[in-house]
Amino acid sequence: MNTSNAVDANLEHRVEKTFCRICLASCGLDVETDGKTIFRIGPDKDHPNNWKDFCSKGGSANQLIDHAKRLRQPMKRVGDKYVEATYEEAVEDIAKRLNLIRNRHGANSIATYLGNPGAHNQPGTIAQSGFMKAIKSNNAYYVGSLDTNNLQLSVEKCTVLKWRFLSPMWIMQIVSCFWG
Ligand code: SF4
Questions:
Q1: Residue-number span of the structural domain to which 161 is assigned
Q2: What is the C-alpha separation between 156 and 25, in angstroms, rounded?
Q3: Where's the 4Fe-4S Mo/W bis-MGD-type domain (predicted)?
Q4: I want to staple 32 with a disulfide (CB 3.0 to 4.6 A). Which of 16, 39, 43, 152 is the partner?
C-alpha cells in the first residue's frame, strides 16, 4: 500500500469504517482509500465506542506504512552505529544473550513488557505469553500492570469472570452497550 495522492481510475474510491489500534481508546476512523492508497484518515463521528474524535496518532497512522524511515528489517547496534541484520541473525543473537542472562541469574531475571499498540495485536499477546512460559519467567508486564494494578485486582475480586486482565473500562463499555 502506498500513501501518495495519485488516484488510480481502475480502483474503487471509498471510505472504509474501521478503528485505530494504537491505544485502548480504539477510536472509530473513516479511512478514505482505493484499497491501494490512503488519501485521508478522519474521525468516525458515528462510531458508538468513542468520543467522536481522534488524536494525531490515529490521523497520521498511514505513515506507518511507507514512511521513509520505516524499519523494514532488524537493526543491530555495532559500536555507535546500527547496521541491518537478517531475522535469523537477530533471533540467534538475542537467544544467545538471553540464555547467558538466564543461566547466570535465573529465569525471572528476564521480563517482558507489552504496551500500545502491541497489546492490541492478538498474536503479540499470544507470543508474549508463549515466550514467557517457554523460558519459565513470571515477569510479564503490560501497561495495566504498571499503573493500574489496583483496578486489575478489583476486577478480579469483584467480577464473576475473576479475570484480572479484563479492563474496568471495557466492562463499563460492555454494560453500556447491552443495557444502555
Ligand atoms: S486515535 Fe489516538 S486516542 Fe484514538 S485510539 Fe488512536 S492513538 Fe488512541
A1: 148-179
A2: 22
A3: 13-69
A4: 39
Q: What is the pLDDT of residues 68-123, one digit of tens each?
A: 999 999 999 999 999 999 999 999 999 999 999 999 999 999 999 988 777 777 78
CA of 82 to the centre of ligand 1 (A): 30
Which atom belonging to ligand 1 lies closest to the Cα atom of 61? 6
Q: What is the pLDDT of residues 4-20, one digit of tens each?
A: 556 667 788 999 999 99
Q: Are residues 54 and 89 in the same domain?
A: no
Q: Ligand 1 pocket test: pick from 18, 19, 20, 64 the residue with the most ligand atoms within 8 Å of its Cβ.
A: 20
Q: What one-letter code names the amino acid at 48? A: P
Per-residue pLDDT, 149: 75
- State the total domains in the chain: 4
Give CA angle at 6 (4, 8), nearest 5°. Answer: 125
**pTM for this predicted structure:** 0.66
Residues 88 and 114 in one domain: no
User: CA-to-CA distance for 29 and 116, rounded, in angstroms?
Assistant: 18
* Ligand 1 close to Cβ of residue 116 (< 6 A): no
Q: Which residue, 88, 105, 122, sits at the end of a domain? A: 105
Q: Contact at 8 Å (CB) between 61 and 20?
A: yes
Any atom of ligand 1 within 6 Å of the Cβ of 58: yes
The answer, yes or no, to whether residue 179 has pLDDT greater than 70, is no
Let me know whether 135 and 112 are in one domain.
Answer: yes
What is the amino acid identity at position 91? V
- CATH number of the structural domain spanning residue 59: 2.20.25
